[in-house]
C-alpha cells in the first residue's frame, strides 16, 4: 500500500498536493492524519468520493510500502500516523513541502522543499512535465484540477501573498487549461476585506433580512455610507458565503454631488442620493441581469449590478427582492433525484456477503431493512472495510451499521437535501414514504443535478464537467418523428405516469435524433425504458406497459421475454407505422459473473440502466411525460462525444466483460464516421493482449460473448457496405483474435477476401467486365466506388460514412468476370466472408471455431473437410486436360466448397475452378431423359452414363447439333 499523508488539520494545499501525487502514482491512497479545516471539510462533504481517501483506522500498517508527506516535514504534524515512519518494511519516504524554515526530523529518502507559494505547485510541475513528454494523451479530471487549483489559490491568496511566485501562476494557468472549475474555486476561496468593508460586513450581518422560498434562502440589506465604497462586490460575495444564502441583494445608498466629478459644475450644485445594488445568486433559473435591466443595470445571470439615483432606496430594494423571489423555480424533489428500487440487506447478513454485494453492484453503501421492510440502518463501504480489516467477515452487519439515520420524504427539496449532506457529512439519504423505503439519494445524485443545473445555465462557466446538456429536446423529437409515433410515445408516457413510473426513450434513437440533419427521422426500432416497480407480478413494469399498449394497438404483435423483464411490440407494413419495433424494458442493472459471460440482470434505476450500456453516445435518454418532459439525461457526457465524433467506453473493464463491444466500437466508428477515443482503444488492446477470453473458456468451458453474440456482431459488420474498412480496423486492433487467438488480418487473408468479393461481384454482375481491375488507375476507381457504397444509408435514417483505408493493395490475381450465368450460391455474402476468415485458421481449429460461433451444420462440415478437398483437387486438377474431365471432377463439390478451395489454391488451380464456374457449370447435355425414351431407350442406370457421355462430348466440342447427338448415341449405345 502506497500512502500520501496530509498534516493534521489539512488545508487545501495539502489536499491538492496529495491528489496530484495520486495521479502521478496510481493506486496511492490519501490519509488525513488528523482532521481538516472547516472549508476543506465542507468541500469533502460533497466531493469526498471523487478522491482516493482512506481513513487512518482502515490502514493495515503491515501492508504499507511507501509514505509520501505533503505540505509538512515534521513528525509533530502527522499525529499518530508518524508511527508508520518507523515500520521496517517501508522502503521509501518522500517529502514535498514549501516551508523552507521548517526543521525536518523525518528520515526521508526523497526530499523536495522549494520556495514556492504552495506545495501543490511542485506536484503540478511534475504532472505538466509528464503530460508534455508523454506519447499518450494526458488530461486531468476536472475534479482533480479543481482541488489542486484550490490549493494554490488558498496558499497564495490567489497569487496576492508575498510568497507567491511565477511558478505558482504557471501551475495555476495549466490547471485552468485542464478544466479547473472557477465556480467551485470561488465558492471555497476566502479573499480578504479592507477595514471599511469589514465594518460594513458587521453592519450588514446585523440588518440582513431573509426569506426562504422553495428551499432557497433569499436575503437583502441596505447600507448607508457618506460616499461611494469600492469593493462592494467582494463584500457581497463574503456576505453570501457567511450567511449561506442562495441569493443576495446588497444595496448601498450614499450622497453624490455632480461637482465631485466635474469641475465645471458650480460648487452650490445640489447633492443627490445614489443607489448601488450588487446582486449575487446561486439559484438556477434566476437572472439578475434581466432583473436589473429596467434600472439601467446589467451583468450576468448570477452576478449583476445597477447604479441609479433619485429613487426611494428601501422601496426599490424591496421591490427588486420581491421580483427576484418570483424568478425562483421549484427545485427538484427527492422523488425526482432518488434511485429506486433500493439495494437492501437484512440485519443478519454477514459482513462478507455485504462486501460481495457492494463489489457486484459497485455501490458505496447498502440499506439495511428488517423483516417488515422497514429501514433499520445503513452500512457504508468504509464500515465494511473496517470490519473486514479486523477479521469480522462472518459477523452480521447489524453490529456495524449506522442505526441513527437522517431520512427524507419524497417531496423533500434539493436545497434541503444538500444542506443535510453537508451539515451531517452524509453520503446517502434514504427516502421514506409511509414508513417504507422507496428510494435513496446519494452524493452523486446531488452533485450530478447541481452540475447539470450549472450546465443548463448558459451564462455560467462554473461546472466541473465540460458537458453542456440541453434543457429539453422534446420539440426536436416531436418535430422529427411522425405524428402517429409521437402519439404512441405520449400514450405510453401517460400510462407509465398513471402507474407512478417514469418512461424514457434511450440508446440509438436518442443518438440518431441528435445527429440527424434531416427534418424527418425514420426510426424503425425504438428502445423504451420504464423506471418503476411493478406491483402486480414479477414480469416487470416494461412487460406490463407493453401489454397495456398492445390492447390499444391490437394490430401489433407482442413478444415477451420475462427473464429479462422486456417486451417488444412489432408492426409489419402497417399503414401508420410501417415496419416498426418498439422494445420496452424495465430499468435494469447487470453483472457479469466472469469475463465474456452472459450478464445477470436485475431491476434497477435509469442511471444504472444507462451505466450498463456500451458507449457514452448510446447511454443517452430522453424523459417522456411530466415532470420535465423532454429532459435529456446524459450522465457520461455522451453529448460531448457526439460533438467530438468519438466512441468512448463507459468504464475500463467494459471490453473484459463483453468482447463483442470491441466489434460494436468499430462498427459505430466506421458507420458514423467517428474515431475510437485513444483511451478506449487502449482498453481494447489491453483486453485482447491479456488473453483473458481463452483463459476463461478453458476454466468455464465456454464464453457466451464469443459465441452467438460474436457471430451477430460479425454478421452486422460483414453484411454492411463498409465491411472492408471495418474489417481492416479490426485487423489493426488485432481484434480477430476474438474468433481465434491465431487469426490475424495479414496480406494473404486480405487477398482471399478480395478475391471472394470479386467472385460475389461476378455473381451479381454477370457478363460485365467494367470493374475488372487491371492497373493502378482501375484500383483507384474501385476504391472510390467502395467509399461511395460505404456512405449509403443504413438504419434509423442515418447516412453511412466510411474511412478510406489502403492497408492492403488489391491483389494482382483477380477473378475475371463471367461470360455465362454464374451458379446460384444459397449462402449469404456475410457468411461466405466469415467462412473465409475461419478457413484461414489451421485445419484442426476450423470446425471447432465454426461450432463455437454456432454456424449452420453444413457450414461446420464444409470447414472440417475443406483441407481434404483442397488436397484432392491439388492432386487431380493437373490431370484435367479436357473440359469434360474438369466438369466431371468439380461437379462433385458444392459451390461454396469450390470457392473456398479456389481462394486457398495457386493461380493455375484457381483459374481452372473459375473457368468451370463461369463457362462449364451450367452446360447441359444436348439430350435429356425424355429424349432418350423417345429414341427407344429403356430407363435405367444406363441413362446416367449416356447423359454424361453426351455432356462430355458437347464440352469437348465433339457434338454440333441434336442430329449429331443422336448419331453419337447410335454409335456408342446401339439398340438391339
Topology:
Blueprint: E1 2-6, H1 12-24, E2 29-32, H2 38-47, E3 66-70, E4 92-97, E5 110-113, H3 119-132, H4 142-156, H5 166-177, H6 182-188, H7 195-207, E6 209-213, E7 216-225, H8 232-243, E8 247-257, E9 271-281, H9 288-292, E10 298-299, E11 303-309, H10 313-327, H11 334-337, E12 344-345, H12 351-361, E13 365-369, E14 375-380, H13 381-389, H14 414-424, E15 428-433, E16 436-442, H15 443-456, H16 474-480, H17 483-498, E17 502-506, H18 508-515, E18 525-531, H19 541-552, E19 557-561, E20 566-574, E21 578-586, E22 588-591, E23 600-603, H20 606-611, E24 621-624, E25 632-633, H21 638-644, E26 646-647, H22 654-657, H23 660-672, E27 675-676, H24 678-690, H25 692-700, H26 708-718, H27 723-733, H28 747-764, H29 776-789, H30 829-839, H31 843-852, H32 857-876, H33 883-890, H34 895-903, H35 907-920, H36 929-934, H37 942-955, H38 962-972
Parallel strand pairs: 1-2, 1-3, 3-4, 4-5, 7-8, 12-13, 18-21, 26-27
Antiparallel strand pairs: 6-7, 8-9, 9-11, 10-11, 13-14, 15-16, 17-18, 17-24, 19-20, 20-21, 22-23, 24-25
Helix pairs in contact: 1-3, 1-4, 3-4, 3-5, 4-5, 4-6, 7-8, 12-13, 17-19, 23-26, 23-27, 26-30, 28-30, 31-32, 32-34, 33-35, 33-37, 34-35
Provide a compact summary of the structure.
This protein is α/β, with parallel strands linked by helices and 976 residues long. 43% of the residues lie in helices and 15% in strands.
Amino acid at each position: 500500500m502506497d500512502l500520501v499523508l496530509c498534516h493534521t488539520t489539512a488545508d487545501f494545499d495539502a489536499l491538492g498536493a496529495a491528489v496530484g501525487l495520486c495521479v502521478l502514482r496510481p493506486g496511492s491512497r490519501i490519509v488525513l492524519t488528523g482532521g481538516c479545516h472547516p472549508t476543506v471539510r465542507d468541500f469533502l462533504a460533497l466531493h469526498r468520493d471523487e478522491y482516493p481517501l482512506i481513513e487512518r483506522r482502515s490502514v493495515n500498517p503491515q501492508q504499507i510500502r511507501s509514505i509520501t508527506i505533503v505540505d509538512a516535514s515534521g513528525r509533530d504534524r502527522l499525529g499518530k500516523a508518524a508511527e508508520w515512519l518507523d515500520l521496517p518494511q517501508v522502503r521509501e519516504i518522500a517529502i514535498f513541502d514549501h516551508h523552507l524554515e521548517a526543521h525536518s526530523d523525518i528520515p526521508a529518502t526523497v526530499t523536495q522543499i522549494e520556495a514556492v507559494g504552495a506545495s501543490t505547485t511542485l506536484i503540478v510541475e511534475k504532472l505538466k512535465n509528464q503530460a508534455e513528454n508523454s506519447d499518450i494523451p494526458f488530461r486531468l479530471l476536472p475534479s482533480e484540477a479543481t482541488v489542486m487549483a484550490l490549493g494554490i489559490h488558498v496558499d497564495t491568496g490567489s497569487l496576492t501573498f508575498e510568497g507567491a511566485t511565477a511558478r505558482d501562476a504557471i501551475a495555476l494557468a495549466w490547471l485552468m487549461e485542464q478544466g479547473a472549475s472557477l465556480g467551485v474555486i470561488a465558492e471555497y476561496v476566502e479573499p480578504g476585506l479592507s477595514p471599511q468593508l469589514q465594518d460594513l460586513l458587521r453592519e450588514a450581518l446585523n440588518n440582513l433580512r431573509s426569506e426562504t422560498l422553495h428551499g432557497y434562502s433569499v436575503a437583502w440589506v441596505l447600507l448607508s455610507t457618506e460616499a461611494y465604497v469600492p469593493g462592494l462586490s467582494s463584500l457581497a460575495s463574503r456576505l453570501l458565503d457567511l450567511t449561506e444564502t442562495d441569493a443576495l441583494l446588497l444595496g448601498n445608498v450614499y450622497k453624490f454631488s455632480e461637482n465631485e466629478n466635474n469641475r465645471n459644475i458650480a460648487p452650490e450644485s445640489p447633492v443627490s442620493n445614489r443607489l448601488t445594488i450588487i446582486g449575487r445568486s446561486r439559484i438556477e433559473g434566476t437572472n439578475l441581469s434581466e432583473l436589473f435591466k429596467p434600472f439601467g443595470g446589467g451583468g450576468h445571470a448570477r452576478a449583476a449590478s445597477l447604479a441609479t439615483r433619485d429613487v426611494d432606496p428601501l422601496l426599490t430594494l424591496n421591490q427588486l427582492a420581491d421580483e427576484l423571489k418570483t424568478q425562483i423555480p421549484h427545485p427538484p424533489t427527492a422523488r425526482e433525484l432518488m434511485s429506486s428500487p433500493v439495494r437492501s440487506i437484512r440485519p443478519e447478513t454477514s459482513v462478507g456477503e455485504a462486501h460481495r454485494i457492494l463489489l457486484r453492484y459497485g455501490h458505496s453503501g447498502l440499506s439495511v431493512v428488517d423483516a417488515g421492510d422497514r429501514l433499520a440502518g445503513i452500512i457504508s463501504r468504509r464500515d465494511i472495510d473496517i470490519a473486514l480489516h479486523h477479521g469480522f467477515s462472518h459477523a452480521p452487519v447489524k453490529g456495524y451499521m449506522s442505526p441513527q439515520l437522517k431520512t427524507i420524504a419524497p417531496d423533500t427539496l434539493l436545497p434541503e437535501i444538500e444542506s443535510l449532506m453537508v451539515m451531517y457529512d452524509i453520503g446517502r439519504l434514504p427516502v421514506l414514504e409511509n414508513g417504507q423505503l422507496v428510494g435513496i439519494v446519494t452524493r452523486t445524485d446531488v452533485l450530478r443535478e447541481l452540475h447539470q443545473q450549472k450546465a443548463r445555465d448558459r451564462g455560467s462557466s462554473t461546472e466541473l464537467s465540460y458537458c453542456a446538456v440541453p434543457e429539453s429536446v422534446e420539440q426536436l423529437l416531436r418535430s422529427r418523428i411522425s405524428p402517429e409515433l409521437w402519439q404512441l410515445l405520449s400514450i405510453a408516457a401517460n400510462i407509465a405516469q398513471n402507474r407512478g413510473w417514469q418512461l424514457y426513450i434511450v440508446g440509438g434513437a436518442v443518438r440518431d435524433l441528435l445527429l440527424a440533419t434531416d427534418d424527418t427521422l425514420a426510426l424503425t426500432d425504438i428502445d423504451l425504458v420504464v423506471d418503476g416497480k411493478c406491483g402486480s407480478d414479477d414480469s416487470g413494469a416494461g412487460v406490463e406497459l407493453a401489454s397495456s399498449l398492445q390492447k390499444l394497438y391490437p394490430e401489433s404483435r407482442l413478444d415477451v421475454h420475462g427473464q429479462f423483464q422486456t417486451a417488444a411490440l412489432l408492426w409489419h407494413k402497417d399503414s401508420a407505422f410501417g415496419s416498426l419495433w418498439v422494445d420496452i424494458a424495465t430499468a435494469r442493472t447487470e453483472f457479469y459473473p466472469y469475463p465474456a459471460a452472459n450478464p445477470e440482470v436485475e431491476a434497477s434505476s435509469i442511471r444504472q440502466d444507462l451505466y450498463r450500456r456500451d458507449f457514452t453516445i448510446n447511454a443517452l435518454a430522453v424523459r417522456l411525460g411530466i415532470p420535465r418532459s423532454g429532459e435529456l439525461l446524459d450522465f457520461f457526457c455522451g453529448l460531448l462525444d457526439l460533438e467530438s465524433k468519438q466512441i468512448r467506453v463507459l468504464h475500463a473493464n467494459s471490453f473484459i466483460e463483453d468482447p463483442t463491444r470491441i466489434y460494436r466500437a468499430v462498427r459505430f466508428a466506421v458507420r458514423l464516421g467517428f474515431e475510437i477515443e485513444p483511451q478506449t482503444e487502449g482498453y481494447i488492446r489491453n483486453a485482447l493482449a491479456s488473453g483473458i477470453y481463452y483463459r476463461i473458456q478453458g476454466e468455464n468451458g465456454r464464453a457466451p460473448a464469443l459465441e452467438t453474440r460474436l457471430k451477430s456482431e460479425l454478421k452486422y459488420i460483414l453484411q454492411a457496405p463498409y465491411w472492408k474498412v471495418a474489417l481492416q480496423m479490426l485487423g489493426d486492433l488485432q481484434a480477430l483474435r476474438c474468433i481465434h487467438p491465431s487469426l490475424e488480418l495479414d496480406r494473404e487473408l486480405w487477398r482471399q477476401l478480395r478475391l471472394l468479393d470479386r467472385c460475389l461481384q461476378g455473381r451479381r454482375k454477370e457478363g460485365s467486365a467494367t470493374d475488372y481491375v487491371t492497373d493502378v488507375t482501375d484500383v483507384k476507381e474501385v476504391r472510390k466506388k467502395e467509399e461511395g457504397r460505404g456512405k449509403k444509408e443504413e438504419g434509423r435514417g442515418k447516412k453511412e460514412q466510411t474511412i478510406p483505408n489502403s492497408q492492403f493493395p488489391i491483389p494482382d490475381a483477380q477473378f475475371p468476370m463471367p461470360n455465362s450465368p454464374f451458379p446460384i450460391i444459397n449462402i449469404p455474402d456475410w457468411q461466405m466472408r466469415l467462412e473465409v476468415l475461419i478457413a484461414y485458421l489451421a485445419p484442426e481449429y476450423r470446425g471447432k471455431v465454426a461450432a463455437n460461433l454456432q454456424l449452420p451444420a453444413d457450414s461446420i462440415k464444409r470447414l472440417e473437410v475443406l483441407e481434404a478437398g483442397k488436397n484432392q483437387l491439388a492432386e487431380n486438377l493437373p490431370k484435367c486436360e479436357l473440359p469434360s474431365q474438369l466438369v466431371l471432377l468439380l461437379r462433385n463439390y458444392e459451390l461454396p466448397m469450390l470457392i473456398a478451395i479456389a481462394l486457398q489454391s495457386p493461380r493455375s488451380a484457381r483459374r481452372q475452378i473459375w473457368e468451370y464456374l463461369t463457362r462449364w457449370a451450367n452446360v447441359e447435355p444436348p439430350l435429356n431423359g425424355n429424349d432418350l425414351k423417345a429414341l427407344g431407350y429403356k430407363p435405367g442406370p444406363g441413362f446416367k452414363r449416356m447423359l454424361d457421355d453426351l455432356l462430355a462430348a458437347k464440352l469437348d466440342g465433339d457434338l454440333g447439333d441434336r442430329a449429331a447427338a443422336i448419331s453419337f448415341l447410335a454409335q456408342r449405345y446401339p439398340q438391339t
